[in-house]
Design goal:
The complex is a heterodimer of chains A (480) and B (115).
Chain A lengths: L3 H22 L4 H26 L3 E5 L10 E5 H24 L5 H19 L3 H19 L5 H32 L4 H7 L5 H19 L8 H7 L2 H25 L9 H21 L4 H22 L1 H29 L16 E2 L1 H13 L5 H15 L3 H25 L11 E2 L2 H19 L1 H16 L1
Parallel strand pairs in A: 3-4
Antiparallel strand pairs in A: 1-2
Helix pairs in contact in A: 1-2, 1-4, 2-3, 3-4, 3-10, 3-13, 4-5, 5-6, 5-10, 6-8, 6-9, 8-10, 9-10, 9-12, 10-12, 10-13, 11-12, 11-16, 12-13, 12-15, 12-16, 13-14, 13-15, 13-17, 13-18, 14-16, 14-17, 15-16, 15-17
Chain B lengths: L1 H23 L3 H22 L22 H31 L4 H8 L1
Helix pairs in contact in B: 1-2, 2-3
The chains are: A mainly alpha (480), B mainly alpha (115).
Chain lengths: 480, 115
Amino acid sequence: MSHLPILVIAIPLLFAFLIPLISMLFPSVRRITVTAMGLVYAGLVGMMIWGYHAMGVDRVIYPLGGWGPDVGIVLELDALSAAFAGIMGLGILLVILYSQDYMEAAESKYYVLLFIVASGIMGIILTADFFNLYVFIEMSAIASFPLVAVSRRGTALFASLYYMVFTLVSSALILLGIILVYAATGSLNMGEVAAVFDTIPELTRASIVGSFVIGLSVKVALIPFHSWLPPAHAEAVSPISALLSGVLLKNGVYMLMRLLPIFGFGDGSLDVRTLLLVIGVLTVIGGNVLAMGQGNVKRILACSSVAHMGYIALGIGIGGALGFAGALFHSLNHMLMKAGAFFSVGCIADGSFELSGLRGAALRTRPAGITFAMSTAGLIGLPPFGSFASKIMIMFAAIDAGMIGIAAVLPAGAVLSAIYYGRVYQVLYAPSEREPDDVSISPWQTTIVLVVTAVGSIATLVWAGNLARIFATIADYLVG
Amino acid sequence: MMGLSLAYWVVLLLFGMGLYCILTESNLIKIAVGINVMEAGLLLFLVRLSYSPGDLAPLMGPTTGPGIADPIPHALTLTAIVIAASTTALMLSLIIQIYRHYGTVDIEEIRSKMQ
């Protein structure tokens, strides 16, 4: 275990600032260096998770600089952090590998920002200090704003600013919550706050929970705070769309799962669970309906991300270990499938993502055409793919809790998404008038990424039993 | 009591003004100003919380205990100011780029030019 928790935050930061130096001194080795750095990052995260499981303890506390939780800031690795570190580490590695071919002409700034995001995300996952959490939220968010605008098109610049304004308001609300936590408890350590949270006056408790929940709802793009997501995710270049949808949205999900149990779900002061259920139903239906009206493939995928965040909100809102475990499982599935869908659509479409110009395009690209079909079928929730299992888990959790209406929302959402993905299939897989031998094969590194996401979307169903057991243990430990 | 709570009224006013500005203005620069005003309100709140009249600075002698101001919020405020300054710089540079593209900083006009 040793120093790995701080290394997974510090090493990507070091990499970020080494990249411009390396590409200035030895421009020919930039590609291989960045690939190696991505692999080292994922390897460190993997070693950290492995070390955690090998130790067989509930939580590992890493005091920064040797100062304990009473005076210093500590990093804390528990089962939830380990699960999310795995999901996010894999997502970041895929984005870095995919960027190599897709963004071949990118300046080295692109990778600098990517590694800063990678560092910030691990910071969010590992820190046990509220203010440190805010710093890492801002770190990963600020690095992601210019990434959206990397194409320098006017629409991308505007989408980036729009995303930025929403995110800054959301982090201001989170900061307000943190200030209130400090004022009420005199501590910023999550464990200490959790221990005394019940003793805080009810009105303060409700304000804390309220500002966190609204701030995080903006970050996760739950309706009615979703309007920043479709332009940002659709206007960014494809690897960044995958980063935003697959990885950065899960930041907010992680924080909801980490903070709500600390706040006791606001029991007695503000009923967060009911709030999340209402917002979740709105988001699932609203996100899918929004997607139906779009004529741009990436916008359809972006609106479907809104709907999927709704499923996760429902899983958390239902309460109980099963719903929580379902939401965790769905985070993994959504990362794999939405990233796969954005990666493959980047290979399928050349420049424009308007459906009207993509007739038969998926038939002419290998293996992107196959990955796109598998990822989107997984996003609908069809059986041979993993998100079938996670949606069933959330549905069973709702039935167990006696919320039949909520359980009915999940199949309804699946039907709605089948309608608009069906429309996409009709165009992308339409028999083409062009020569049949006009097939483009992706470069090998991109192919690996596409195959990993495609195989991953099935593998999560094959291992659904084991994964569900792991996630259920985590959920038990958090809310049981 | 009224005198004590004046700072909190200013905090509320700044936060509300900033949020109102972000939600209603269509000029990008004014939105950037709104975000800064809102953050200023939060920072004032953070500083105000740590101080009650007559407190000593935690510099010499005992650094904690009654009658000594809590130093942690000041450290936090400093960090938050740095973050706010860097986000503002980034936001303004994006606005400059948008202005170069569209020749305006008005959201409605940009939207109509994007069509």
